[in-house]
Amino acid sequence: MEVRQKVSPRVDLALGLAGIGVFLAAWAGATYGGLVKPLFLPTPTYILEGLAAFNKSGWLVPAILNSTKRVLLSLLLVVAVGVPFGALMGSFSHFDAVFRKLINGGKSIPTTGLAGLIVLWFSIEERAKIIFLFLGAIFYMILLVRAAFQSVREDYVRVAEDIGATPMQVVSKILFPAALPQIWEAIAVCSGIMWTYIVLAEFINSNEEQIGLGYLLSVGSRTQDSGKVFGTLILIALISAATDWLLKSIQKRFFPW
User: The whole model's pTM is what?
Assistant: First the structure.
């Protein structure tokens, strides 16, 4: 085995499945064997029972759909704002100089600390959750898109300018297409960030009427049901991973360069 040795997709898949299998076997052995208390690590059966209880109450599917809808709406808003803004920062040095320090500063502010302001400005309804997710990812989107534009080879820009391309033509015809794969990766990164924030976002006015995976997690925590807590966390991880896989599949299909 060599340093940074590439493996085939088939070997990569086999090793990944083997790793998951070993992890699940260790988990089952520790929990079914009584080595770990259920409060700290429930058995897989107990987790399935917790999710089944949510499903029986009619909460599971609406929670998944509502959380997914909130992430998608916030992601669309992040893309609509972050891509043009990051493109301008990555293309024009003066624009970048004006906003770079502000964006870096905004990125450093913990989103959880803004929860009080979000409730004050946008009340506790659905839009507050969307804004919370938006603020959690927008600064990263801008900076990642900026980096994508700045990573395009300078030779391409010089050649375009030599044949008479205008600045906006350079941006739209040269920089944007070349940066598109990295922009798509930025979208995948921000999607993952939003799924890590979904629980906190849905703690804002968490109730059955505005149900989401965050509400299910809070129910499991209040009732000290570790099966429901672990089951909800696993669902969030699986949905986030599936979204990431879908976005990367689209990138490989349409932006392979």
Answer: 0.85
CA–CA gap between residue 171 and residue 152 (Å, rounded): 11
pLDDT, tens digit (0-9, with 9 covering 90-100), for 23-52? 989 988 988 888 888 888 899 899 999 999
Asked if 59 and 244 touch (Cβ cutoff 8 Å), the reply is no
Count Cβ neighbours within 10 Å for each residue of 24-49 and write b for 16 or more, e otherwise. Answer: eeeeeeebeeeeeeeeeebbbebbee
Q: pLDDT per residue over 195-246, tens digit each?
A: 988 888 887 666 677 788 888 888 888 888 888 999 999 999 999 989 988 9
Q: What is the DSSP letter of 41?
A: S
Alpha helices in 33-171 (DSSP H): 44-56, 60-91, 93-108, 115-122, 126-150, 154-162, 167-169
Task: State how far the alpha carbon of 151 is from the alpha carbons of 66, 109, 144, 178, in Å.
Answer: 37, 26, 10, 9
Alpha-carbon gap, residue 95 to 92, rounded angstroms: 5
Domain 42-254 has CATH 1.10.3720.10: yes
Q: Where are the domains of the chain?
A: 1-36, 42-254
